[in-house]
TrEMBL record:
Residues 286-314, 355-382 are annotated as: Disordered. Transmembrane segments: none annotated. Residues 297-314 have a biased composition (Low complexity). It holds the Pfam family Gly_rich_2. It comes from the Bacteria. Residues 286-296, 369-382 have a biased composition (Gly residues). Residues 197-409 form the Glycine-rich domain. This is Glycine-rich domain-containing protein.
């Protein structure tokens, strides 16, 4: 059955009797009449098209409109929240869009990034650089240097590297020339004089006497007595001029004292090291057995004295330490040897009654002492000379360390072509107030810092193992 969309009224149907349609039509007309009545009622409550109100009649309208932005309103960039850096951007910075739809300021150069320009696109370049013709510095567009800036020459990197290497090489040669040449003698014989030593050469001589041997302890009447440590050898130093070398001929190197080898036997005294006519470094006394060994006497130049040997004991005391003299040996019963800065260190006493054994004495310039035996009635440590003393063992005291002679030759003059000079003092050569490279010839006084060290044994010069370059001390250029 078909109906209208709005009021859902039943529509006439073909083939149906008219008498059947009348009731349906009557019902539909009533629906239409009611709909028209409803429309009239609603329209009666509406204002007409010509209806008007003043703004004051509408509550709050004026206040609301006044809070709204004017149509011609303008803003500064600094007033916008999504523009970063506008308040503190540098002059000539540009505004660009960043991420998240924000805007920010940045340098125009940074925005360009890495890029290239054609020569023809750069206005005035040819006139500025004279690229298409010769200019006042060029011949066939090759610079005829050196170029100067504010009156100072400018060199290429390669030229500077070569020049600096030449300077380094000459400074290295200069340092070798002003540092002392050292010769160490460990065996008796004639004094070695390398070629290049003149009458004006400064020579410094160090001599060390040998250390005394450690004594051997004894067990007596149910008590253990440890052997005393040997005394350290004396150190003597003197300075002479080159012309005095003619007075010096023979060097006698002291040998370390022999440690006690039989029960209750004291150690032997260390041998003295002598250079005839100039100096003697006394050897250290031997360590005691039943009684302490006698100490050496002071040498003539008062550089120090040899160390005293420690006595055998069941409760040892430590040996005396000195600055210049040799360290005293420790008494038996685990007394430690005395130390020394320049001379040999004293040997430690052997233990008694199963003690720990005396510790050796230290030395900065000479040899350290030997350690005392750890056990009952053993041997004391040998005293140090230039070389360390031996440790004591169960049935023997340690031998003392041998002496030695150290010769230092100082050459004062040198010459060089260039020197690097920086603010202040450079390698004790020149004092300057600015940095520069300058031709230079002159003299410098050598410092007492150790430079090149050599050992002299059996008439032969032995170079130091750690040196990277071989320098022959018998050649004149090694000392000039």
């Amino acid at each position: 059955m078909a109906k209208t969309k709005k009021l859902e009224m039943e529509l006439p149907k073909e083939g149906r009797f008219i008498s059947s349609e009348f009731p349906i039509l009557r019902e539909n007309l009533q629906k239409i009449d009611q709909a028209i009545a409803d429309c009239d009622e609603k329209s009666d409550r509406k204002a007409s098209l010509q209806h008007r109100h003043t703004m004051s009649d509408v509550e709050g309208l004026e206040t609301t409109l006044k809070s709204k932005m004017a149509a011609n309103k303008t803003f500064l960039l600094a007033d916008l929240k999504d523009v970063e850096g506008c308040k503190d951007a540098a002059e000539n910075y540009v505004l660009y869009k960043a991420s998240n739809d924000h805007f920010t300021f940045g340098s125009s150069k940074s925005l360009l990034g890495t890029h290239e320009h054609k020569i023809e696109d750069i206005r005035g370049l040819e006139a500025y650089g004279c690229l298409t013709k010769k200019n006042r510095w060029q011949e066939a567009n090759d610079f005829q240097g050196p170029v100067t800036v504010d009156g100072k020459a400018i060199y290429t990197k390669d030229e500077a590297i070569v020049a600096l290497q030449e300077i380094r090489d000459e400074i290295a040669q200069m340092i070798k020339a002003i540092m002392p040449l050292e010769v160490l003698m460990t065996e008796s014989g004639s004094l070695p004089w390398p070629n290049g030593v003149t009458d004006d050469t400064d020579i410094e001589i160090w001599a060390w006497g040998a250390g005394g041997g450690g004594g051997l302890g004894i067990r007596s009447n149910g008590h253990n007595y440890g052997g005393g440590g040997g005394g350290g050898g004396q150190c003597v130093r003197t300075k002479i001029k080159g012309f005095q070398r003619r007075q010096l001929t023979i060097v006698e190197i002291g040998c370390g004292g022999i440690g006690g080898v039989s029960s209750n036997k004291g150690g032997g005294a260390g041998g003295s090291t002598r250079i005839e006519g100039i100096m003697t470094a006394l050897g250290g006394s031997g360590g005691g057995s039943g009684a302490g060994g006698n100490g050496g006497v002071e040498s003539s130049n008062e550089s120090g004295k040899s160390g005293y040997g420690g006595s055998a004991s069941s409760s040892g005391t430590h040996g005396i330490s000195y600055i210049v003299s040799g360290g005293g040996g420790g008494n038996g019963g685990s007394g430690s040897g005395g130390s020394s800065i320049y001379s040999g260190g004293g040997g430690g006493g052997a233990s008694a009654n199963n003690g720990p054994g005396g510790w050796y004495g230290e030395s900065d310039k000479g040899g350290k002492g030997g350690r005392g035996y750890k056990g009952n009635s053993g041997g004391g440590g040998g005293g140090g000379g230039y070389f360390p003393g031996e440790d004591g063992v169960a049935n023997k005291g340690g031998n003392g360390g041998n002496g030695a002679v150290l010769l230092k030759f100082f050459c004062k003059e040198f010459s060089m072509n260039y020197a690097i000079v920086e603010n202040g003092v450079v390698t004790n050569i020149i004092v300057a107030l600015e940095n520069y490279i300058h031709p230079f010839e002159g003299k410098a006084i050598a410092t007492e810092e150790v430079g090149i060290g050599w050992t002299y044994e059996k008439g032969v010069f032995i170079p130091p193992v750690q040196m990277s370059e071989s320098v022959d001390p018998t050649k004149e250029d090694s000392l000039s």
